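Predicting holo structure, magnesium ion bound.
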Amino acid sequence: MVKTTVSMIKADVGSLAGHTVVPEPLFRIARERLAEAKEAGLINSFYVFNAGDDLELLMTHFKGENSEEIHGLAWDTFKAAADRAKELKLYGAGQDLLVDAFSGNVKGMGPGVAEMEFEERGSDPVVVFAADKTEPAAFNYLLYKVFADPFNTAGLVIDPRMVVGFKFEVLDAIESKTVVLKTPEESYSLLALIGTTERYMISRIWRAEDDEIAAASSTTKLSLIAGKYVGKDDPVCLVRGQSGFPAMGEITVPLLHTYLVAGWMRGSHWGPFMPVGLKDSRCTVFDGPPRIVALGIQIADGKLASDDEGRPMIADIFADPAFDLARREALELASHLRRMGEFEPARLGPAAMEYTTLPQVLKQLEPRFRKA
Ligand code: F6R
Ligand code: MG
Ligand code: MG
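Done. Tokens:
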């Protein structure tokens, strides 16, 4: 049976009023480009949306992961949108397109990518997470809860296909190497790694029983590619749900409460993760707080399940009032943290600040230091 691939590829190619939100003209270009690609038979279906200032291209196709054609399509779409952003003099136009020419795969060129290829089940629900003003390791806590914490996911205790556990691939972003750990046996060792969010991030998860793919996350570190601060690596993540995977409600319940993630203003602060619906997917207060959207989709015959007019059907999960508590907690925490200004721990520690513009400021002071 032919396998379906879900590709979530995103980039910040310019936004309205600083780093706030993707404006309509850029959406239009993305929709036009992807509609042409669908017409030409390259992709089967698509949905364009935004996480704050990031343009998000969700596509389904039969070309597999890391397909040059699909990545090329995303790159050309981002280029076209960046050109329009430049004409409009939007802010940060083309900021995530770190190289001039496409060379086969957008990974390492600026855009973020999460992809999963799988044989479709009778019905295949997927949650698409996209976040702004934070980094891929922001999903470490969420994914651990969903796939390894029985107090979060009842299925780990109740569903015979899940009691065996899951396998987590963790990327060491500093040394560019990966390790696979199996839960529940190695859950403490897994936590020992992924609690260090500055360095380790979960890249993929498989169900241990049959090695079926369960989740995939983007793992771009722009600062490590560019060697300097070029904005945060606002991440995306795909999670499969139901029938032997965590239920949709188990995948989203970690956001019943907020938790702290690195990013926010100038990529330099701890900020409370705020779940929002698409209509609130924009960053405002202190360029945030870091926001996350969750879209529920169904994969059907290689496509996003669509309505009678052929429009993909999207469940905008965090638009629900059930996430009001987390939003209120996030704002309360935001107000406490902002009172601390530039004092740690509101501001990130020195290692993370190496990749911001702070070292330039410190350098100016260097000649004034005298031996104590
Ligand atoms: C965070 C982000 C923003 C900017 C901030 C300053 O990822 O992109 O918080 O860092 O708005 O931007 P510049 O230096 O471009 O004025
Ligand atoms: Mg931006
Ligand atoms: Mg962004």
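The longest helix spans residues 68-87.
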